[in-house]
Amino acid sequence: MAMSSNGNMPEIRPPPNRKKDIFDPQKMVRVDERAREAPFETATTFPELVKYLTTGLVNDVEKVRALFMWMGSHQHLSTVYWDASEDSPIGCWQLQSMGRLSYNDFFVRLCKEANLPCVAIQGVVKAMHYAVGMRDEELKSFQGEWVAVYVAKGWRLIVPIWAFSAVAGFTDGNWMEVERDGEAVFQRDESFPGQHITHLNDDYFLTDPNRLIFECFPEKQEWQLLKEPWSFEKFADVPLCHIQYFEQDMSIIGKFSGRLKSENGKCEIKLKEKPGMFFGYRLFYNVTESGKELSNDTKLDRYVLYKTESGTFGFEVRFAAAGVYKLQVNGGVRRDTFDMICEFRMTCDEPMKDCRPLPINPLIGFGPNSTTKEGGLKAESHTQAVVNFRKEEGTTITFKILKPVNVQTRLFHNEISSNELQKCIDQQPWANGKQIRITVLVPQSGEYALQINTRDEDHLASDAYENVCNYLLTNDNEDTAPQKVKEKMRAMRDAKQRVVQMDPKKIEAITKIKIPSKKLHDIMMATLLMIGKWEGFVKDWAKVCKVLEIKGNQSVQSRVRRFRVKTADTDVCFKARSICENYFDDENASDDADAQDTFCDWVQKAVVAKETVSELENYLPPGTDYEDDVFISSDEA
To answer: Torsions phi, psi of 422, nearest 5?
Structure first.
């Protein structure tokens, strides 16, 4: 066991493995039962209690589990024992119930009696009164404690107060729920102090450091137990991620921030799709911070666009009124048992111009997803949620038919009846019945929702149709598309030039690094993917360095110079984005930036250019070469 410099306890460093590697609840049943059933008389002295709890246990994980379970199972002392010594487990429980002893101090004492190294940690905690995105100064006032215990050859984190108690139902009265899963709510929470409850929550037992850092920020950086420590600014800025976010291995795509600012009256968040799960949302308005109530005629239903595309799902919020909002993302394996996943604060200074609700806001959202395939269809021509159309031109969407189904299509608009729009849709079987083509020719500009429903061929009842896919059709980008494409292509070209002109010595310096940081490896993985290397190859750092050492026409710089947006594989771009988007920056890399930031900037600009072209290409004049320097530079001042 490596010791710290003072020689009194093990060296403080990140644990060698994760909670799941050392703790299996199913293997602790016997330990838990024995701790819960501990006779009262064993708690009269610490030595006697520890001896009872730990006798026969084979390792220190079992020992700390026994102590933890005993504390969590014996919180309800209904009798006062006047003769109990304060230096006994019974006496300590009585002190704790009177507020004279913390869960933390009690647990540290138990561990030390069992010869388990245990340290109390102080710091900032996102406890009951915390709201996502709150000001740094206010957050710093939330001081709390937790512990680190040394078991299984590493320091492990436990939060006794959260593991053994909670406050249920607390609300500060500042938030008004305005929309939930496409339905208007318009209900303000009443202020309620909450109800203190005792329970046993295993989520705060041996919690992995990379998870607890989202909620607890220690005063001493070493107790983060992370290879790459967080700053307080990052701790304050991240989204509020609930237990399900970690248990379901969710991943936020794009800027990893819980403080979002609207652009053109909109905010968008995106997460990696999780097969087998359903998702929903709740949108809240902060009356206090916004400085005013929403007017009764401001019904914010159908202002959140829920969409799935390219292995992601997300929510685009349109703001009809300025103010401070909170978006709560929920999910679960069943639609009737959603849990909170994550939350974001959204600030809108200027509402969206001509902000109108969506034509519909379906429960399954917009864009092809797992429900589409379960309903017998697979999208072939359009895999995105939003389809851009040109005025007076038909838009054809093609599906592969996976099983015998009847297909029903409907078109919706805010001002034109669905019955009237039915004549704008034509659906035809194709490829000997293996495909179906749906062509839409809308009568005027604006937004439309195309709803696609299916039923099995042997279910002929009209109510047997189920919604399996939806598209939002719009031509809002028709006039601005060329300029948007030029801007993104120009940014990509400039980032490419910075890579090409970079001093090769900077790349050579990377090859000298034997053990890279996660950030460096991620960025170089994404870069090599973009220039044609396969994923399994780039996971090996030694192989990455070999590629970086290549000179001449096959060097990384030469291959970046030859990169073309038009021929870039969409799936590869998505994969590159998912690997290193947490390092993306809104600012351009400077000419003197280090190699990793220069490469990251190029990956970001190239991926965004590909996404923009894929979305808006049909608005460009036929035959446009959007990678031609003349096209890119034509509007440059």
So the answer is: -60, -30
